[in-house]
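Handout for the seminar on molecular recognition.
Each group receives one record of this type.
Step one: identify the two inputs.
Step two: read the structure output and locate the region that could contact FE2/S2 (inorganic) cluster.
Step three: write two sentences on what you found, then compare them with the reference statements printed after the record.
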Amino acid sequence: MRPPPGTVVCRWADLQTTGTVLYRVEGFEGFVILDDYLPRGYVDACPHNGMPLGGDQEETDYQTREQDVIICRWHGASFLKDSGECIGGPCAGDHLEPWPVERRGDEVVTV
Ligand code: FES
């Protein structure tokens, strides 16, 4: 189940440092990535097969080295940060499921 609005996901400074923050509670897996100066949240389930994007190495950085797109480590699907649209790979045209978040002061919270 999704955490309720106002739930603290992470510190803003931590997202700026890592670029990706994974969020795990029982029954829900999500992640937040830094898109320039905005946090973007998505449910951590690839449209291709429903697995978390980290792959079998349980990678915790969900962006390419250039930090221009989100990447799924299983089969290389790539997604736009701002819309979650898959622009390459086996699920092209599908979308990540949005998980709305915003920055409030020093924190990133659900909305
Ligand atoms: S599970 Fe993400 S590309 Fe296959």
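Reference statements: Strands lie at 8-11, 20-25, 28-35, 38-43, 70-71, 78-79, 86-88, 101-104, 107-110. The helical segments are 12-18.
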